[in-house]
Amino acid sequence: MYSVKIVADSSSDMLTFDGVDFASVPLKIITTEREYVDDATLDVEGMIQDLSEYKGKSSTACPSPADWLAAFGDAERVFCIAITSSLSGSCNAAEIARQDYEALHPDRRVVVIDSLSAGPELRLIAEKIAEMVTAGFEFEEICEKIEEYRQHTGLVFMLESLKNLANNGRVSPLVAKAAGLLGLRLVGKASEQGTLEPLEKCRGERKALATIRRILQELGVRGGKIHICHAGNLPAAQALKSLLEEVWKETDIRISECRGLCSFYAEKGGMLIGFEKNCG
Ligand code: X90
Q: Which helix (H) or strand (E) holds 99?
């Protein structure tokens, strides 16, 4: 038996994980005044409060290869799950760490999974890996099956503001402008290239939630797991859960909170929804 570890960057919003050895590699949120490390000790609410009063420039930074490497510990088989490589250098840093680690320890193996997504879709991938590890699958088999599984997962988001995304060049100014009207919420999805794909602008939250439900149906959700991750918007997450349960009664819908990185970009009120589609 090999020792197995799952290592995800902090865009996954996971701090702990049951069943398999796990580590989170923090991204950072940076202002001219201070640096917030997106780890278990970060006071997310405090950071949001600071940032709402702060008028200067803010940005983020991905983990370095050394950060990833340190998180591998001495595991013999490592599964890295990174935020979309289209928007961050995290995946690239993990890849460099993989090469260093395997050169240093020729008998160990690392796989880097570019989630092409953020937030709860990373969690779904981690849970699937853990399920297969527990079931006794070989490393190579898991790598193959996870590629397949990812054809059956997706991410939808609802954003009230795209300010931080636009200021940091993560969406085109055109997309940001289209969404920037007061009272509008942008509902979109992670594209196949791992970028933000706007789908609809909705006036008011109720409208946005109904739109999310319809989009999930259109994208092929037929029950299965759904993870709702919210940035300071538990009421909307709960309302969405009830709305989805009207259609998918028995389904496994969970709610959690965004950590630092996703809170920064999804901004207050934002929601990310990771889901399984076309399963079974
Ligand atoms: O490397 C870095 O500094 C991190 C940059 C991350 C930029 C994007 C974060 C997105 C967070 C926002 C809504 C959903 C996005 C869908 C992704 C395809 C969440």
A: helix 90-104
